[in-house]
Amino acid sequence: MYHAIVKLMNGEELITKVINDDGGHWTFQDPVIMYRHIAPTGMTWLQCSHWLLFNEVSVVRVHKDKVLALVGDLHDNVIANYEKFLQEGYVEMSEKRNSNHEKEKFEQQRDQVIDQLVGVGANTTYH
Q1: N- or C-end of the chain: fewer Cβ atoms within 10 A?
Q2: Rounded to two decimals, what is the model's pTM?
């Protein structure tokens, strides 16, 4: 396993962990897409986001003909910032998931109380 910057044929740039090379595909773990921004003043900065936002598994295989370049000699500070992003991003996603679970739990409890007070199947239209 090693960290790499990947430039895809569609122009996207990723930072990722390369965990396998089977000759025809690379297998990436925790790919993060990087967006470059340039202000009118010339100041530049990077914005990062998880490459695949809606998947539970963070491993993906990419066919080599979709990759323009793969560079594995990253500076230590780049790797440290990437790992920090991953750690904080997964915590944020986990907190959001837990928050949604707590909201669903609250709504179920609220509905149970309403059913007890009003009666199951009663007209529960609120005005």
Answers
A1: C
A2: 0.66
